[in-house]
Design a protein that fits this description.
This protein has about 300 residues and is an alpha/beta fold. It has a single domain, classed as Rossmann fold (3-Layer(aba) Sandwich). The chain is built from nine helices and eight strands. An eight-stranded mixed sheet has the order 1-2-4-3-5-6-7-8, with helices on both faces.
Length: about 300
């Protein structure tokens, strides 16, 4: 494992460093932020979506946006990993890996991380979009779940929303709206600063989203840790009617606690928007509740 800074790399928030982990021969890169006082209360493992790297969780358009800095300020380590096919692993896996292969690599990376870093009460899994599918897959693994206190996912669900209508000339605009929602939902400069963290989406990930809709109910039924699911108000990739949300919650019936929330004034990339801090505080508040339920909260 190495932790280094690279002068040519995108700017990062104060206290955020780069990290690499050996995941059984696959090098996983990412970003790490640790609290001033160690050991941490828990470790938030953050997994990004498609077409962007771990920098998604350290947005640079406004100081309030970064999950990495907020989590560390509240006593948590935040480990944002580049999923297989991104960052340091892109050369070895240019087409990416299927969900189960990504889950195996992340589990191996977390094993090395725990050998070198304190993990407090355990892991809290947090995933966005494609990373949300991976988070749910990881949480369904009983061995890993034994070291997890809970999970949060955003930008993913059980059923894809209908594709918006439009001709070929509108496709780029429609794709932008699905990925981001209205531009005013984001701090000025977001589209510019996010460019540094964009990356090609591995081809295997496109097919995996379709496959997810066939396997998700089995995955959800095997999750036995507290679960929180957030839908942005302007989420356009995943269906989020009241019936859709009720069906999702019912499939999580084995989880000891399930919270399904809607985040107002947010687009698909909820962790980069104007309401990112409000969203992150709700997620970390849920983590606090998970720790209290385990008797691991603050005195």
């Amino acid at each position: 494992m190495t932790e280094t800074t690279t002068p040519s790399a995108p700017a990062r928030s104060t206290g955020v460093c780069r990290i690499t982990l050996d995941a059984d021969g696959t090098t996983l890169s990412g970003l790490l932020s640790e609290p001033a006082q160690l050991p941490p209360r828990a470790v938030v493992v953050a997994l990004h979506g498609g077409g962007i790297t771990s920098g998604y969780f350290d947005g640079q358009a406004h100081p309030d946006v970064s999950l990495l800095t907020l989590g560390a300020a509240l006593g948590f380590t935040v480990l944002a990993l580049d999923r297989p096919g991104y960052g340091a692993s892109a050369g070895r896996h240019p087409g990416g890996l299927p969900l189960d292969g990504q889950a195996a690599a992340v589990r191996a990376g977390l094993t090395e991380f725990a050998a070198r870093h304190a993990t407090g009460a355990g892991y809290f899994l947090l995933g966005h979009s494609w990373g949300g599918l991976l988070t749910l897959t990881l949480a369904a693994d009983a061995e890993l779940a034994a070291s997890c206190v809970g999970l949060e996912v955003s930008g993913c669900g059980r059923r894809l929303a209908p594709e918006p209508e439009g001709d070929d000339q509108d496709r780029d605009l429609l794709l932008m709206l699905r990925n981001w929602g209205p531009r005013e939902l984001y701090p000025p400069g977001t589209m510019f600063t996010a460019q540094a963290d964009l990356a090609p989406m591995p081809v295997r990930e496109l097919a995996a989203v379709i496959a997810w809709t066939r396997r998700c109910d089995d995955v959800l039924a095997r999750i036995r840790i507290p679960a929180r699911v957030t839908f942005a108000e302007h989420e356009a990739w995943w269906a989020q009617s009241d019936d859709d949300l009720a069906a999702l919650a019912s499939r999580l019936g084995a989880a000891p606690r399930v919270v399904v929330d809607r985040q107002p004034d947010a687009g698909h990339n909820v962790s980069l928007g104007r309401t990112a801090r409000a969203y992150h505080l709700k997620v970390l508040g849920f983590l606090e509740e998970c720790l209290n339920e385990r008797g691991a909260g603050k005195p």
